[in-house]
Design brief:
Oligomer: single chain
Order of helices and strands: HHEHEHEHEHEHEH
Radius of gyration: 16 Å
Helix content: 40-55%
CATH class: Alpha Beta
Number of domains: 1
Low-confidence stretches: 1-5
Strand content: 5-15%
């Protein structure tokens, strides 16, 4: 595993670095710092200002290692919405960060959403890609259907939030035979998905600098 060295690529000023370091120290003391998964738990808790988030994260099939491998290959990162796309770090890796909403394809059919239609339009790009879904349960259901049909993403980060289908979509993701990071229950959201992805990128950067 990569060296467990804390860096914050998004902290560009001294004040920002000090805040990031103090926040990380608080999260590290409360959550622990033994594994790469602990680092993701720390960052996700910081992202929502709630240490309870650490206990809601679920990791399946060695997702950190899978994410690092995808970054090493320069695999595409596909986000469900532009907020997630905008939040993902663009430095320290060669991966292109796409948004499913920008995919060229047929319009969303009755009973589905634009994000779900976008992932279906990007079906041919899913193999080996990193999928990051922070908002839309329908998009996560669509990705799971594509996995069941034979597509194999390198990693799926699925943390949609809400009272309608969010918990169910994440439960389904955890049954898929692919590496995944998800949250239990109705909580989650775009900040959590972005934080999980960005921590994997941060570990990737730390490893490339050693």
């Amino acid at each position: 595993m990569r060296e467990n060295t804390f860096i914050e690529p998004g902290a560009r000023t001294r004040a920002a670095r000090e805040i990031a370091e103090r926040s990380r120290a608080i999260a590290r003391a409360a959550i622990g710092d033994r594994t790469p998964e602990d680092r993701i738990r720390q960052r996700c808790a910081i992202a929502v200002g709630d240490l309870a988030m650490a206990g809601l994260l679920r990791f399946r099939n060695r997702p950190v290692q899978a994410g690092l491998g995808a970054l090493d290959r320069g695999a595409a990162i596909i986000a469900d919405i532009r907020m997630v796309q905008a939040g993902i770090l663009k430095t320290g890796h060669r991966s292109t960060v796409l948004c499913a909403l920008d995919a060229d394809g047929p319009p969303a059919r009755e009973g589905t959403t634009r994000t779900a239609a976008g992932f279906r339009a990007l079906e041919d790009r899913l193999d080996g890609a990193v999928v990051v879904i922070g908002n839309a349960p329908s998009a996560l259901f669509a990705v799971c259907e594509l996995i069941e049909s034979g597509r194999v993403p390198a990693l799926v980060i699925g943390t949609p939030v809400g009272f309608v289908q969010a918990a169910e979509s994440k439960e389904l993701l955890r049954t898929m035979p692919v590496p995944s990071i998800s949250t239990e229950g109705t909580r989650g959201g775009s900040p959590v998905a972005v934080a999980a992805m960005n921590e994997i990128i941060t570990v990737h950067i730390a490893g490339s600098e050693t």
